[in-house]
C-alpha cells in the first residue's frame, strides 16, 4: 500500500531533492493557534509534518519541547483533540504527510485499536513513538502496520550493525536517524559523522533516511539534506514559537508568522542542497 | 478478575521482563543496546561465584549484615495482639535498605567498566547509598533530586555532597521523584557510552525490577532463617511500605510461595485517597512510564498525575511492575496510610521502642497499628524497618510545631 509518505518521497525524488520535515507540539500554545500554524506549514515549505502528542513526562526531550508539551496540556490539549486537529488540517490538505510523534501511555490509555481506527480516519500517515523499541513491537507497531499506518523507527548512534536489522524490520515510511546520543534540543551533530551513519543505515534498507536532533539553521539544514533524504527541525521551531508568546505564554499576532518565517528560511536551506549522488 | 494463577509466584519475570502483562522494556532506542548489555552482564555476574563471594564480603563487613530480626516487645504489648518483629534495615550502613541494591549495582557497573554513576533519589536514602559506594570505589556520582525534595530532605543533601557526589536539583514537572527519574533518564540517553544508571527501586525497564529485587531479597532470606531460629517456624504475616516497592519485594519475595504467610504492602495515601495521594494501586490503573507497564496515577488522557506524600521516598505516581502483578493475582494485599497516620506512627514508634523510623517506614507501622490488634497473640508479624528517621527530623519538627 502506498501512503502519503511514500508518495511524497517519490515526488521529491523526481524533483531531485531531500525532504524538509518540521516538528511542532499539538496544541502549543493553544489548539486554535496550533492548527493555524500547522495549516501554514506546507505553504512555508514543509514537506512532511510531525506533530507532537503532548505528554507530562517526555523522557527523551529537552527543556524547550518539555515546555511546549506543558503549554499544550495547560491549554487543554488531549489526544482526542490532537486527532481532531489532524482531521481539521485534512479538510484543506490531502497530500502533505502527517506523522504523530510522542510517548506510548496516552495511546495505550486511549486504546490501541480505537486509536488506530481514529488516527487512520483522521488522516494520520505515520507514528513515531519514542518509548516503543522493536522489543515491544506487539504493542503498537504491528497493529499500526495492519491498519495501514507507517511505524517510523528511530535509529541512533548506539544502534550498531548487529542491531540495525531488528530496528529496521518493521519500519516503514522512512527511518528517522537521531544524529546524537541525547535529548531533543541539545548538541548538534557533525555532518561528516551523519553522512557516514546514513550510508551505514542505507546498506540495510531501501527506505528514505531522515536526520534530526540539533539542526537549528538553514545552513545546517542544507548540510544535513545533502547527506540524507530529509532534515527534521523541531526545537528551533518550538523556540521561535515560544519567543513570540506574551508574558502569560499566550499567542500573539506574531506567533503563526514567526514559525512560518523560520520554516520558510529553513526550507530554503534544504532546497539549496546539492542532490546527493545516488 | 482472576488471571491464570501461576504455579509459582517466584518465577517471574519472563525473558522479556514481563510479570504477567506488567514490566517490559519501554525505552528510547538509544538506551536499548545498553539495557541488553546490562541484562547480559547481570546474568553473568549472578552465575559467577566470585561475584557473589565479593558481594557477600562487602555485605558483611561494609553494610553490616545480617540486620537483626528484633522482637518489638513494648509495641507488641501496646497494641495487644500479634507478636511484632522488626527487620532492622535501618541499622545498615547509610541507614536504610537502599544500600543492599546499590552495592549490587555498583559491583555490576564495575564489571561493565563504567566509571560514571547516575541516580535519582526522593528521600535521599538511595542517593546517599549511591554516593557512599561511589566514594568507596572511587567513581564519579551524580544524583538527580526534585527541588521540593532537596528542601524537605536537607540533611541527606548535605550527606551526599560530603561524600563527594554532585546533587542536581530538578526543577521540571512536580519537582519530586518522578521528575528526578525523568532527568536521570535524560542524562543517561546523553551519556550512554560511559554512564551506569543506578535505579533506586524495583522500577525502570527490564532487567532493573528483577535485578533490584534480587539484591533486596536478602532481607527476606535472612528473615526466614532468623524467624526459624527465634520461633521455630515461618512468620504469619509481613508488612512493608511501598514507594517503588524495593524494600517490600525484598522482604516478600522469599515468602511468596508460602501460602500461610499473609503479605501486606502499604502505599502512601497522602491527604486521603479522594484527594492528593501517592497510592498507585488504590487510585491508579495500568499504563506505561519509566520503562515499564505498571499501575500509575493518571488522568483519562493518560497524562501522569501529581503524587503527594509527606514522605519524599513514597511520593511517586507509580509502583514496581511485579507489585502490579502480585496485586492482580491477589497474592499480596495492598493497603494505604495517610500522612497523618504516618506521623502518628512516627511518634508512637519513637516513644514505644526508642526507634525513630523514616517517614516512609512509618507508613508500614501505621498499618501494623491496625492489623496487629486484630490478630491473636501467637500470630508472628514481621515489619520491614526500611530506614531510620534522622533525615526527617527537621521536617517533622516543623510540622509538629505547626500543629501546636
Ligand atoms: C527508608 C525508606 N523506605 C522506603 C522507601 C521507599 O522505596 P521502596 O518502596 O523502593 O522501598 C524509601 C525511599 O526513599 C526509603 O528511604
Structure description:
The complex is a heterodimer of chains A (278) and B (404). With 278 residues, chain A is an alpha/beta fold. Chain A has helices spanning 4-15, 31-44, 63-74, 79-92, 104-110, 112-122, 141-146, 164-169, 191-202, 218-226, 235-243, 255-271, and strands spanning 19-25, 48-52, 98-102, 126-129, 150-151, 154-155, 175-178, 209-212, 230-233. Chain A has a 9-stranded parallel sheet with strand order 5-4-3-2-1-9-8-7-6. In chain A, β4, α7 (141-146) and β5 form a beta-alpha-beta unit. Chain A is globular and about 50 Å long. The mean pLDDT of chain A is 95. With 404 residues, chain B is of the alpha/beta class. Helices cover 43% and strands 18% of the residues of chain B. Chain B has helices spanning 32-46, 49-63, 73-79, 98-111, 125-137, 147-152, 154-162, 177-190, 208-216, 218-231, 246-252, 280-283, 321-328, 339-353, 359-371, 393-403; strands spanning 18-19, 22-26, 69-71, 83-87, 116-121, 140-146, 166-170, 195-197, 237-241, 262-270, 285-289, 291-296, 333-338, 380-384. The N and C termini of chain B lie far apart (47 Å). The A-B interface holds A 54-60, 62-63, 66, 73, 78-80, 103-110, 130-133, 135-136, 153-160, 163, 167, 178, 181-183, 186 and B 16, 24-34, 172-173, 178, 182, 185-186, 189-193, 287-291, 296, 298, 300-304. Bound molecules: pyridoxal-5'-phosphate. Pyridoxal-5'-phosphate is lined by residues 96, 122-123, 125-126, 201, 241-248, 313-314, 358, 360-361, 386-387 of chain B.
Concise structural overview:
The complex is a heterodimer of chains A (278) and B (404). With 278 residues, chain A is of the alpha/beta class.
**Helix-and-strand structural type of chain B:** alpha/beta
What is the molecular shape of chain B?
A: globular
Main sheet: strand order of chain B: 3-4-14-9-10-13
The low-pLDDT segments of chain B are none
How many distinct beta strands of chain B? Answer: 14
Strand-residue proportion of chain B: 15-25%
The end-to-end distance of chain A, rounded to whole angstroms, is: 25 Å
Helix and strand succession of chain A? Answer: HEHEHHEHHEHEEHEHEHEHH
> Mean of residue pLDDT of chain A?
95
Greatest chain-chain interface? A-B, 43 and 35 residues
Alpha plus pi helix count of chain B:
16
Total count of strands of chain A = 9
Instruction: Tell me the overall shape of chain A.
Output: globular
> Strand order, biggest sheet of chain A?
5-4-3-2-1-9-8-7-6
